[in-house]
Design brief:
Blueprint (H helix, E strand, L loop, with lengths): L2 E4 L11 E4 L20 H12 L4 H8 L3 H32 L3 H10 L38
Antiparallel strand pairs: 1-2
Helix pairs in contact: 1-2, 1-3, 2-3, 3-4
Length: 151
């Protein structure tokens, strides 16, 4: 087992800490305190749906409701999904309207995202007058010289 460091005070550094063997101390389990089960309200359902549509992470939505994120997903799964779907639908509707009206940026985005179009770049290298370039490699072998030897 490892060691547990216990500091005498907040201002002490590690060199002044008492080194205690963790095997000398039994592990104490904290008691589980039962809580009242969560009861969703209409107000909370609306809050979860709207904040989900705004793109907030589940952890932050749970904080706003005052529950754990696991509890949020357990009781508000439909609202989480519906809020996101409604927001995506509204954005798609706006984008589509802009594309239909001739907005070039929206048209380009739509064709790339929805129609899987893409921009491709094709480069061809040619020589003078469009003649194909033929790469040539010249290899020369040179006899190594001995020390003190000259040509």
């Amino acid at each position: 087992m490892g060691r547990l460091y216990w500091k005498e005070s907040i201002i002490d550094d590690r060199s002044n800490a008492k080194c205690l063997n963790i095997n000398e101390f039994p592990l104490i389990k904290m008691p589980v305190i039962p809580q009242e089960p969560h009861v969703p309200t209409d107000e909370n359902r609306k809050l979860v749906e709207s904040t989900s549509g705004l793109g907030l992470p589940h952890e932050q939505i749970a904080i706003l409701v005052g529950i754990d994120d696991k509890t949020l997903r357990k009781y508000y799964r439909a609202e989480l999904d519906l809020g996101k779907a409604k927001a995506n639908g509204q954005i798609a509707k706006t984008l589509f309207s802009k594309a239909i009206s001739g907005d070039t940026t929206s048209l380009i985005w739509w064709t790339k995202a929805q129609m899987r179009w893409s921009e491709t770049v094709k480069q061809e290298l040619t020589g003078e007058d469009g003649v194909a370039l033929i790469p040539s490699i010249q290899v020369s072998f040179v006899k190594p010289q001995s020390v003190g030897e000259t040509d």
